[in-house]
Write a structure and sequence with these properties.
Layout (H helix, E strand, L loop, with lengths): L8 H14 L5 H16 L9 E3 L5 H6 L17 E3 L4 H14 L2 E5 L16 E5 L6 E4 L4 E5 L4 H11 L3 E2 L10 H6 L7 H4 L6 E7 L5 E2 L1 H11 L10 E8 L1 E2 L4 E9 L6 H11 L7 E11 L7 E11 L3 H11 L10 E4 L1 H8 L21 E9 L5 H14 L3 E6 L22 E9 L4 H17 L29 H13 L3 H11 L35 E6 L5 E6 L1
Parallel strand pairs: 2-4, 3-4
Antiparallel strand pairs: 1-2, 5-6, 6-10, 7-11, 8-9, 8-10, 12-14, 12-15, 13-14, 13-17, 16-18, 17-18, 19-20
Length: about 575
């Protein structure tokens, strides 16, 4: 960055006062007028344009904004609101939204399904516009070639349903929550209960379409190998607007088996031994078997008024019940699995079962995007590379009971996850990781005091877990977004600030992502609190896309309006 000391302080003060005096803070009304005119001119059509731009004065603004807020922490009266919500119907609408937001100097946030745990797809402390992709939901399934083209605003439930419509022996290895949006899930390295057999969702992406910072629509060939690599696990919102992904379907057997088995510490059920054995088995067993482990502090049914720990295995086996019962009897005797614990079904019914639907629910329930009520929630993540000892587990149980509510979800790795190299995609957490931890706490009532209490619980448990998890870096999963591990103000130290969280999410892949970002979006238009920063020292030869680069000494002055009309002047490279 150009050194500000080169400018006499009097000159800087004069520039600041002159600009502040002559430029009014943008109002919602002025932004709406400028944006709508620009978008109309860009698309060369009046059709639909005014219908897809929602200003704060529009009677539908709140309902459109809130429809895809999945964390109630960010749906309060004090939560910063966008100046506009744009809901594109066609590709030119997306291109125009990028061009016009850039032209008027307003930050653009991109939302596909709204499940971002920290709300950064629809919240900002700067004036911003939401580009809400929920109407981009077309899914075209080609069973003969075993592929599907899926738009970014489709949900995982819709993807599974459309595949099932065409084939009962194909599926896709993505997440278990059916209302999650495809755009964020895939671009962040999404996973599901077939990851030990088939790896991540991004391991099966064979093409994509993206709108870049220049408003161009690029496919894999047009964007080049580097950018195509980056948007398969590096977070698409750092690089452009994902329009669609082309995915390769995977085979699923005609019969799969699910089961749920719970143990409790206070019932003499050897829950500690149960978890010890789970660590030895779950990451190493037959790769057709995925056994998620839930650990939760619950009220004791033995000692009234006390809490205990419940350990629950929730499993999918890509095969029949007899086979998995025999396998578990040999490898995991403390599970005590019997055929009575198991339910055989087809794959689409297992999707419903994992989404906690009852056993009479029809597959078309997967098309329902509505969430009855969004919880208040906080999530964090870790990776475990060495089994936790018995003494370690007993200390963890004590800490969980002491804190009271925060639980764990352990997701086993191994299988296909150990076969894919750590740099094949930006997602680096492959061989050497036994399981991923999700820290999970939900609550139902609003209030600052409640939020502070429960988020503090999660942070304290995260701190306690330090000796048991990965280090140097302490790795984290991008799709379990966690602003506690670092944010970026995009000032003088944006690369260093970005490395704090970027190395946790991407390990050794972070610098390659920075090089690509610097090449394709050198002015850092596509940004959020944890996006990939630019860095002029790393941009040489990073991308085949031929994007222009900024000179190290070039200055880009930009005005942004803060809450209450305060103007700040930023100097960016």
């Amino acid at each position: 960055m150009e050194n500000l000391s080169l400018f006499p302080s009097g000159v800087l003060l004069f520039l600041l006062l002159s600009v502040t005096a002559s430029v009014a803070a943008p109002t919602a009304e002025s932004v709406y007028t400028s944006f709508l005119q620009c978008l109309t001119n860009y698309t060369k059509s009046q059709d639909h344009v005014s219908d897809i731009v929602f200003a704060q004065t529009n009677s539908s603004f709140s309902s459109v904004l809130q429809a895809y807020i999945r964390n109630a922490r960010f749906n309060t009266t004090s939560t910063p609101k966008p100046l506009l919500v744009v809901t594109p119907l066609e590709e030119p609408h997306v291109q125009g939204a990028v061009i016009c937001s850039k032209n008027i100097g307003i930050q653009l946030k991109i939302r596909s399904g709204g499940h971002d745990f920290e709300g950064i797809s629809y919240v900002s402390d700067q004036p911003f516009i939401i580009l809400d992709m929920f109407q981009f939901r077309n899914i075209t399934v080609d069973v003969q070639n075993e592929i599907a083209v899926v738009q970014a605003g489709a949900t995982l439930g819709e993807v599974y349903y459309r595949i099932w419509e065409k084939s009962k022996v194909h599926g896709f290895p993505a997440g278990v929550c059916p209302t999650v949006g495809v755009g964020g899930h895939l671009s962040g390295g999404g996973y599901g209960n077939m990851l030990r057999k088939h790896g991540l969702a991004v391991d099966h992406v064979i093409d994509a379409k993206i709108v870049d910072v220049k408003g161009r629509i690029l496919d894999k060939k047009g964007m080049g190998e580097d950018l195509f690599w980056a948007i398969r696990g590096g977070g698409g919102a750092s690089f452009g607007v994902i329009l669609s992904y082309t995915i390769k379907l995977v085979p699923v057997p005609e019969v799969v088996t699910v089961y749920r088995v719970a143990k409790s510490l206070d019932k003499n059920e050897s829950a500690t031994e149960f978890v010890l054995q789970w660590q030895q088995v779950a990451p190493h067993t037959d790769d057709r078997l995925f056994m998620r482990l839930l650990l939760q502090p619950v009220s004791s049914k033995v000692v009234k008024g006390q809490k205990t720990i419940r350990a629950t295995v929730v499993a999918l086996f890509l095969g029949g019940a007899d086979e998995v019962v025999k396998l578990m009897g040999k490898e995991f005797p403390t599970l005590g699995l019997s055929k009575q614990n198991c339910t055989e079904m087809n794959w689409i019914d297992s999707v419903l079962w994992w989404a906690n639907f009852d056993n009479i629910t029809k597959p078309d329930a997967l098309l329902d995007r509505n969430v009855n009520s969004a919880s208040f929630l906080k999530r964090k993540s870790d990776y475990v590379q060495k089994p936790i000892s018995k003494e370690g587990l007993e200390g963890i149980w004590k800490k969980m009971v002491e804190l009271g509510k925060t639980g764990f979800v352990f997701n086993p790795y191994g299988g296909k996850m150990s076969e894919v190299s750590s740099d094949a995609t930006p997602f680096p957490h492959r061989a050497g990781n036994l399981f991923k931890i999700q820290y999970s706490v939900n609550w139902d009532e609003p209030g600052v005091e409640l939020e502070n209490n429960f988020t503090r619980q999660a942070r304290m448990l995260y701190s306690y877990m330090t000796p048991f998890v990965s280090s140097n870096p302490r790795s984290a999963f991008l799709n379990y977004r966690d602003l506690d591990i670092g944010t970026n103000s995009f000032g003088n130290n944006s690369y260093k600030e970005g490395a704090v969280y970027g190395v946790k999410y991407f390990n050794d892949n972070f610098d390659r992502l920075v090089k690509i970002k610097s090449a394709v979006d050198p002015e850092n238009f596509f940004r959020n609190e944890q996006s990939i920063p630019t860095h002029t020292g790393l941009d040489a030869g990073a991308s085949k896309s031929g994007a222009s680069k900024l000179s190290h000494f070039s200055l880009y002055w930009k005005l942004m309006a803060k809450v209450g009309g305060l103007l700040i002047l930023e100097l960016l490279i």
